[in-house]
Design a protein that fits this description.
25% of the residues lie in helices and 27% in strands. It is built from five helices and twelve strands.
Length: 267
């Protein structure tokens, strides 16, 4: 009768490990090469456009693959293989490129990009910055929205700050409000008597019948003070409604010559 394992003793790990992706791919190549010795070879007849004609499949003389040589050279042909006029693929041929070296390089570039950004923490920093800007999830205009705040990266920039409410399903703006990120300098306001308090705008968006989101209202309200003697208060409220797609009517006008029955048609 075996004794129970002592408390705290680590359990033995299984020795089985999943093979690497390269091992699995090479095994599949070998299986495909073996299949050429088992599955009969056959082709379809082709029409003038090079498309197979249904019901014309027939067997032809087979050319089984060389298990070792063709399995080893298959990755090379898959990348740099050249297709000749007869449809044979080999890296010694003359013809058009059949291999997918462009796709392989694209995957390598994307993989390198992701590896570098993950190693340097750029993606995590970007996500963290976005999370900090998100003020939460709210309900606006009968829609669930993400509330995002924004402002210039540098505090001294005369840019826009404000809030954006983004639809959680369509990822389209529902409402955007802005204001000046910083005030007019104190010296300009005091010595020149010039200021634009409250400068900003509000834009409301809504989906149309075909699903396209479009601004439906634009409004702003601010004051203008110039050199102590000019003072104005600006109100603006614009509304878009009764959207309609453009209607276009086309007509082709040409000339034709009547041809009598039985007469020869000019070439």
């Amino acid at each position: 009768m075996s004794e129970p394992a002592a408390a705290g003793e680590p359990a033995q790990k299984s020795r089985f490990a999943l093979p690497s992706a390269y091992t699995i791919l090479f095994a599949l190549i070998v299986v495909a090469a073996l299949a050429t010795w088992i599955i009969p070879a056959g082709v379809y007849n082709l029409n003038a456009a090079g498309e197979p004609i249904p019901g014309t499949y027939h067997e032809v003389a087979g050319h089984p693959a060389r298990i070792l040589v063709d399995s080893l050279t298959a990755p090379i042909n898959g990348l740099y293989g050249i297709e000749d006029a007869k449809g044979n693929i080999n890296y010694y041929n003359s013809g058009s490129l059949f291999g997918a070296i462009d796709i392989a390089l694209f995957i390598l570039v994307i993989g390198g990009f992701l590896g570098i950004t993950m190693k340097t923490g750029a993606i995590q920093a970007g996500i963290g910055s976005l999370v900090k800007r998100m003020a939460g999830r709210e309900r606006l205009n009968n829609r669930d929205v993400f509330h995002i705040t924004f402002r210039p990266k540098k505090k001294d920039d005369f840019g826009w700050s404000g809030d954006a409410y983004i639809d959680t399903t369509a990822y389209q703006p529902v409402l955007v409000t802005t204001a000046m990120a910083r005030k007019i300098p104190f010296a300009v306001r005091t010595l020149l008597g010039t200021n634009v308090p409250g400068l900003g705008f509000t834009v409301t968006y809504a989906p149309q019948a075909d699903g396209v989101w479009f601004p439906v209202t634009f409004s702003t309200e601010f004051k203008i003070h110039v050199l102590y003697f000019f003072h104005r208060q600006i109100f603006l409220n614009a509304e878009n409604r009764e959207f309609e797609k453009t209607h276009v009517t086309s007509r082709i006008v040409g000339e034709a010559t009547a041809v009598e029955p039985g007469s020869s048609q000019p070439q």
